[in-house]
């Protein structure tokens, strides 16, 4: 029935074998046969707080009892309180006043951020990163690097100019991190040296580009963490030419990296910040942007600038509000780095044991494992696919019973496991996860070599 | 707090006075003071089945208990069943095999439909109607008529060519319906007569336009119902030049007009149909498209063509499935036209009494009341705004207690009340609604004349 | 050799039989066999002053002796004097100060005019007429109506919105000129009534369109002369919304219509005027624009705004200067209308005799003959082609010897002879031309019926 | 009069002092006062064969006597013969059959090449070089690097992606030529490694880019000569992904570099070649493209693909034909490199003497002198401007009388003299040129330091 009535145009049919799940709890998904799958990707980081988190479910139920529906042109309390909580938190962190604008789905929030950028700069064109991902609406596809996402959909008149990301394990300029002095950033700065580099009018210092879209840690690109000095130096260049920094935190936001926003690690204040996914723990597509007051005040972004039926829907805002409360009451800032370190320490042991485990790295609980040829460097997509499929087959046996393992594949060469476990994962579950991973790895090596 | 931390860029601040609601039931919203507001717009037709509809709330709760979250690259039963139900229903109605592709928010579904169109036609450009509304992402804004939605956001390279809609109360060609013989359609057909009308290459009969985007009944444009023969004749022209018909049913779908899809009234099979809003009765932004098999089969719309984190989220599909069951078990096809007729009959009495009530019309429970000057024709926006604000003030007294009335304003001149009540509205509630409306009308006339 | 080494991409191979000419004088071309062809199109109006006009040839020779070459970043006297003569003449006619900017080829001048428009309005989009032609660079193709000129060349992001031209013989709205009260113009005005017609923001009266490109008399469209009141009323609408009027006089300029610019007949002052072709009588592609001082002063159109190697080349400006002197010393303003009337009177006799001659009309010496079916209305392209090919075959015998006749075909249905004879054509040559035309017409009728 | 009636939008008013010239001969221009200016730029290489070259003037006069005007839809012999000569010469050089398509002005020919590219590749987007210049129509401006040329003219939907040029004196990657192994080219190749570099779909090896526009030697960019191996390696990458190589020879063609086309030095066959300027020695803007038969055969580039009134005008083709005959009868292939070497040897002496002369280089008679600070590297625009203005002031005295010197400034930092003397310059004139240059240099240094 699925193969007949469902479009195959989404990502379901990437898989060799189609898994159907019918329940979930904490870090686990269950299929019809009751097999338990340890989930190490948590809906690409949308379910940071664990499947069926009881506080968040209760918040939703409470809102259902009260006011589950309301046209977004009228107000409800939860919208206001959530916006205030988010904006106040940013004000504290970034020392910048700003406002929140809600929408549904990360792409729609990205499109709203483009509207803010265009009003401010009068320019359609932006910079974005090679390896960057910002969504699949036509507008978001124009600033997402992969040509495959545009190829069949006509001409994209606002295609971004894509800049190499500081991906040090595979430095685009063949440099070594300890001696490079951020050569990649110097390359970007060089573009502003003369008008003949096609970026700036040296007589006015105005640029053809209105913004630079970044992910603080690249998501789909393979959870690549940039050097600490990169973003601050980038921001300085951008400020010189009035180019806005738009920080897409859809995947890394809400403590995935150990802080509320990934960008907080880098001592940089974005001009616009885009959030989504984990705000509702996957129970409502609520998303949104925060922008500096000068970019989003009623004077410049007046009523009617944008609209969406479900933009600040009551159920989404109620869950989001509870999420913010959970965060405020938590010690995630301590726990997440600690769990991340433990997870990495366990994965590094695999790296030492298997040459195919090429890079292990991460920030908070956004972890990466790069699968390579035996040289530890050449990307190995077949082995990566094999491991993922073995995990999904539900035939692993580590921990003493038939189990499955949910992994997500990313990276420029589709050879990176982007690991994003529940924030409530225990050390025992991490151990189990690594054991299952090793089991799948061994089977995968056997299959592909 | 709202004025400080919330963006004003949505439609909240259109209003003179900001209403905060905190509960809802059936056809009613309630504010902090407990004042009851009869809602005649039901979240622009997103809550067709009444606030806090118990069957739909139960379906959501059941899904929360089972599997509230799941990455959309894996399958859950409700997605498959809902897609099958929708596609099978279309197959029965339209005699066409097709598939369903889900997303969240109407705009994102519109963008997916654009992808389908571009793949098939290789063309970025489309026709759309003056007065048409298809959403506010950048791509959707390009095919939505109002220039205000594009003005501040740079250059739109894929701006649609907008064609006059058959709005007979204000015929764009000053014709009378009984003698016009659809002159407006003849004008459209004329564009294909020579290559010098900028639409077609007469040597190849290929057109510069890949699709025509329509609403079966214009929504934001003011619930304008086209003549019955219009769409069938339009479709014939389009077919001659391989131009797809994309039917946006986001606002009119799910029985608003008395049939599942508005287009069913017009004996036309669309090539792509876009739906959203009422599918979940406002509890989840689930949206989607149906397209003919030739346009969406895996061969032409293969895995990875598009993607969205929340596209077929379990909560949304579970509610949508229950909505389809309610529809199957209902007699909406009988009840809705009947209620619509009753409502119109009551409104027509007002028209006979007040010259300012210029046009009363509708299809099913999509009703329009056009507010005019005393000549019964010149649009009267000040009076329209006054009536709406009086309704929102909650100071009406019809029916013996302090009440409010929720109305939505649309139309090319912002002088049309687009009335979309709950499908479960009773005749008594209709009577109350008309009484409240008349009270507000009288007060509005007193204020503005 | 031609068929092997020459691109066929120009218009040479439209013809059935390829004519090679090797000399010319006055109104005549001669082929290898010495056959004389009376030319009634004069290089689509580029050779208004007759082949091998001795004064203009002498002017060119004098410049060759003096300064045939000079980089356009340096000055030569003829450029300055020609610019002054043109601008002073416009100032006298239009009561507007302005400046001249030269380039080569009509399309390049059109592109310069677009730059002026974009600077002033900040908008890429313009209106242009159905049936209009402004050139074949990519930019000019975007505002030229025929889709065929864009079809194979990708997506055109700045495609004009095309408006029906007041072509009264084939009224797009089926009106009659004597009772229409310019219904077509009222249709255009209507677009500004509400923002939902996709043209204007009613809150600011700003338009999505920066300019309206017109030809005072449509050239390629078939020498269609608009009603006298049309342009003045159009201009009023445009001024209300700050939309510039750009008048393309490339084909009609330099007295083709009996005045220096075709627009002078219509009592309208354009904001920008584009000229080319006849300025050098076909001996140099010199073209240019005039724009009002406010649009082209150094403050808004500063050094380096545009550039072209040959823009104000000495040979072209020297010939252009002599052309202006000839015009000043001539009585073209009297002679051309007189000759035009005589020519039309002769052609009208044909119309009375042959039902296939459907419309005879013109302004000055820009004349049109529309070839139709026997009903005098339905366009007859096969007969039109036959007549043109018979003329080119050089086998006519009117006037007592073997002769040819050069005619150009235009019009929306390619059934219009656009007649543009030399300004020095005599009444005897007109008689000969009409006789040759009648001979070809008779033969053509015999062939195609 | 000039300041009042001429647009300042061209490049005339870049100059401090406006020179008016009134005669020319050989390598010299003369102003009103009879001062002789040695011209070392020859109208940016348009007058390669010397001012008032008698053979070329005679050819033009002969054509004036015969057939100076002819609509381009008819044929004349000179067009055919010139096309054949050009195409046959290319066939001999490149071992490729092809065809010639004429137009007027380099930009219009560039636009024709874009049409050829778009037909073949179905893609609007192209690569071009940083520092590249291809003209100033809107289409050509989109692929010309300087943002200044686009800044005020709205959004450019087909903006090229600009790639660093192999400018070894100022290596964009801080490499040294002897050890770089063309790191810059490796960087370009890298873009095709994964789809995440935004250039290619690795599953189909199809690219988002249809062509790469190059100048064999960068013109406006400062006569920068690339390493010999660069273009052959570039072409290999392009061929792998079906990306066409379009070679813009407008400035370097017709023996400026010592070969008919600059690209001949690099052992690469372009897919399309664009020519202009020197073909008529500055007496007619004739330009054109050559394309491989598969790209321009009548099957793919059929009649009506493009058009321009003056495209193959008789005067231009007659001069062009004589130019080709002169070339055939000349020993330019020997003489030009010899003269170039002598010129360079003299300039290098200046470099050894003045630290401000930073780089001296060239190919054939396309020479560059880069003016720097005392460190011999930092660009020195003020000194460059001073030297140019001193030359134009006509107050130099080298060679024993009051003289002027005509120099053109180019380069990314506007600090490069791009020297392009007449092909008939004598060694004595070279000596004089270098003496005048040294005199101006000394005065300039005195003024600016």
Q: Main attributes?
A:
four-stranded mixed sheet; seven-stranded mixed sheet; 449 residues; 17% strand; homotetramer
Topology, please?
4 copies of one chain form a homotetramer.
Chain A: H1 2-5, E1 21-25, E2 28-31, E3 36-39, H2 42-45, H3 54-66, H4 77-94, E4 98-104, H5 106-121, E5 126-129, H6 138-141, E6 161-163, H7 177-180, H8 183-190, E7 200-201, E8 206-207, E9 211-215, H9 230-240, E10 244-248, E11 272-275, E12 286-292, H10 293-296, H11 314-329, H12 332-353, E13 357-363, E14 366-371, H13 381-393, E15 403-406, E16 409-410, E17 416-419, H14 427-448
Parallel strand pairs in A: 3-15, 5-6, 5-9, 9-10, 10-11
Antiparallel strand pairs in A: 1-2, 2-3, 4-12, 7-8, 11-12, 13-14, 14-17, 16-17
Helix pairs in contact in A: 3-11, 4-11, 12-14, 13-14
Task: Write structural notes for this entry.
Four copies of one chain form a homotetramer. By secondary structure, chain A is α/β, with parallel strands linked by helices. Chain A has 14 helices and 17 strands. The first copy, chain A, has helices at about 1-5, 40-45, 55-65, 75-95, 105-120, 140, 175-180, 185-190, 230-240, 295, 315-330, 330-355, 380-395, 425-449; strands at about 20-25, 30, 35-40, 100-105, 125-130, 160-165, 200, 205, 210-215, 245-250, 270-275, 285-290, 355-365, 365-370, 405, 410, 415-420. Chain A has a seven-stranded mixed β-sheet with strand order 4-12-11-10-9-5-6, with helices on both faces. In chain A, strand 5, helix 6 (about 140) and strand 6 form a beta-alpha-beta unit. Chain A is globular, with a radius of gyration of 22 Å. The two termini of chain A are about 35 Å apart. Chains in contact: A-B, A-C, A-D, B-C, B-D, C-D. At the A-B interface, helix 1, strand 1, helix 3, helix 4 and strand 4 of A face helix 1, strand 1, helix 3, helix 4 and strand 4 of B.
């Amino acid at each position: 029935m699925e193969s007949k009535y469902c479009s195959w145009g989404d990502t379901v049919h990437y898989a060799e074998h189609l898994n159907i799940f019918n329940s979930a709890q904490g870090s686990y998904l269950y299929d019809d046969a009751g097999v338990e799958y340890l989930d190490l990707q948590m809906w690409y980081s949308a379910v940071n707080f664990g499947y069926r988190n009881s506080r968040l479910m209760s918040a939703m139920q409470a809102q259902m009892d009260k006011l589950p529906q309301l046209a977004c042109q009228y107000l409800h309390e939860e919208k206001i309180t959530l916006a205030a909580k988010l904006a106040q938190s940013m004000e504290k962190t970034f020392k910048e006043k700003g406002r929140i604008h809600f929408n549904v789905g990360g792409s729609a929030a990205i499109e709203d951020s483009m509207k803010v950028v265009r009003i401010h700069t009068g320019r359609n064109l932006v910079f974005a990163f090679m390896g960057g991902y910002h969504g699949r609406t036509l507008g978001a596809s124009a600033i997402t690097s992969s040509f495959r996402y545009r190829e069949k959909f006509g001409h994209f008149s606002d295609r971004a100019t894509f800049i190499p990301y500081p991906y040090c394990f595979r430095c685009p300029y063949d440099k070594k991190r300890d001696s490079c002095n951020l050569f990649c950033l110097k390359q970007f700065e060089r573009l502003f040296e003369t008008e003949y580099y096609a970026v700036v009018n040296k007589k006015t210092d105005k640029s053809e580009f209105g913004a630079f879209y970044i992910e603080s840690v690249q998501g789909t690109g393979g959870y690549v963490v940039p050097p600490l000095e990169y973003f601050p130096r980038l921001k300085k260049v951008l400020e010189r030419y009035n180019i806005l920094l738009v920080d897409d935190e859809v995947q890394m936001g809400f403590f995935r990296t150990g802080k509320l926003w990934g960008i907080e690690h880098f001592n940089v204040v974005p001009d616009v910040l885009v959030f989504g996914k984990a705000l509702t723990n996957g129970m409502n597509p609520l998303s949104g942007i925060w922008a500096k007051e000068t970019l989003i005040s009623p004077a410049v972004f007046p009523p009617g600038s944008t609209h969406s039926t479900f933009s600040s829907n009551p159920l989404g805002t109620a869950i989001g509000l509870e999420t913010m409360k959970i965060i405020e009451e938590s010690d995630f800032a301590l726990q997440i780095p600690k769990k991340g370190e433990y997870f990495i320490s366990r994965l590094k042991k695999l790296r030492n044991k298997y040459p195919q485990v090429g890079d292990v790295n991460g920030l908070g609980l956004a972890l990466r494992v790069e699968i390579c040829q035996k040289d530890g460097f050449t990307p190995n997509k077949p082995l990566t696919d094999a491991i993922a499929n073995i995990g999904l087959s539900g035939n692993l046996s580590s921990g003493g019973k038939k189990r499955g393992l949910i992994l997500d594949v990313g990276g420029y060469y589709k050879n990176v496991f982007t690991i994003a476990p529940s924030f409530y994962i225990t050390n025992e579950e991490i151990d189990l996860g690594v054991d299952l991973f090793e089991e799948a790895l061994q089977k995968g090596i056997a299959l592909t070599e």
